[in-house]
Amino acid sequence: MASPVKLQRSPPFRAEHLGSLLRPENLLKLRDEVDDGKADQKELVKVEDDAVKNIVQLQLDLGFHAVTDGEYRRHMFWGTFFPGLDGFEEIKNPDPALFREYAPDIAAFIETGQKPAESVICTGKIKHIGSTYVDQWEYLKSQLPRSQQIKEAKLTLAAPNWYHFRYKEGKAYPEEVYANDSEYFADLAKAYQAELSILYDHGLRNVQIDDPNLAYFCSEKFLEGWKKDKLNTYTADELFDSYIEFYNDCLSERPEDMHVGVHLCRGNFVGSRHFSEGGYDRIATKLFQRLNVDTYYLEYDTPRAGGFEPLKHLPKNKNVILGVITSKFPELEDIEEMKKKVYQAAEIIAQGNDESKEEALQRIGVSPQCGFASHSGGNAVVHEDMVAKLKLVRKLADSIWLNEP
């Protein structure tokens, strides 16, 4: 599938969430014990199974269709895709000199006197040797009794550029393995194609790729750091262009009935911390018109994401899910104010496409701006807060699109 040529609906849905949900305390405690060698992995799997079963039922009870497993089997949102490939290796306490110190998440660690405790890096030729996601997906499927529910359920995947963006020029892979980024991207794209093919064969039809890196190109602080870095051999705009091409290669073999969306946010870390600021204006045209995905899940809960003006570049064959509810803090938004925001966004999309507001609304949904637990510890909210936020998302959607999923 070279590019989406028709509008995909259901998925996405009017009420969405972004995948990760707060993990129960007994799961977190047992995982720590397993990591410390004080408990058995088999016991952890059973607790994970029970937790996934419960969180799936909660989502169904609240009226969500793009059900996930809450990312309960992962420590961080990006999961286990990269360590599961031949040619990648997990490293503990990596040398800080590997990283672009101005990359927003890395800069946040440095500012607080910390450094990344672990990372994954390319050490050899990249090859897909089996899916590390498929077992997670199969268990999620087992909790959904109807075939339609399985087609609607969602799996989140790591961004393909995740372990390229953060590393300094020349550090993302050995020069004796790959002569340039193009060779590295080509092999990694084949791995994504293989992963998507396996998941499709197992019934997955709804994919969300989580990519804060793309939003970092909206940050003036990051762009200034890029300009000052004498190691860089091309501009930030050229890197963004290469990432678009890279993505399109990753998705080039997906079947037409596999919905793919990309989620952009500005960081969602311990204590509900964000890493960057800046509106979508400088990347909007390329992001919306050249990236071959069906749906954009966009952060819009605070002014740090800018206004809705960039949405005028959203073409008629693509959707946007507006993340107008925050997952970072417990205070509930005013539903009437949120409705005004959605209608404002619809007006701008309509102006950009010479269509009515009502037509534009057909390509919009609502969600929190990010997950509730991109990292295992979760945001500065408790379970009851999360449920209240999810209920608000559903209520907001119902107030705009009555009787639509």
Feature tags:
alpha/beta, 405 residues, 39% helix, 12% strand, 6-stranded parallel sheet, two-stranded antiparallel sheet, 14 helices, single chain
Description:
With 405 residues, the protein is α/β, with parallel strands linked by helices. Helices cover 39% and strands 12% of the residues. The chain contains 14 helices and 8 strands. The protein has helices spanning 25-35, 41-61, 104-111, 134-142, 147-152, 162-165, 181-201, 212-216, 220-228, 236-250, 284-290, 335-353, 357-361, 383-400; strands at 86-92, 118-127, 155-158, 206-210, 259-264, 295-299, 319-325, 364-368. A 6-stranded parallel β-sheet has the order 3-4-5-6-7-8. A two-stranded antiparallel sheet has the order 1-2. Strand 5, helix 11 (284-290) and strand 6 form a beta-alpha-beta unit. Helix 1 packs antiparallel against helix 2 (41-61) and helix 7 packs parallel to helix 10 (236-250). It is globular and about 55 Å long. The mean pLDDT is 94.
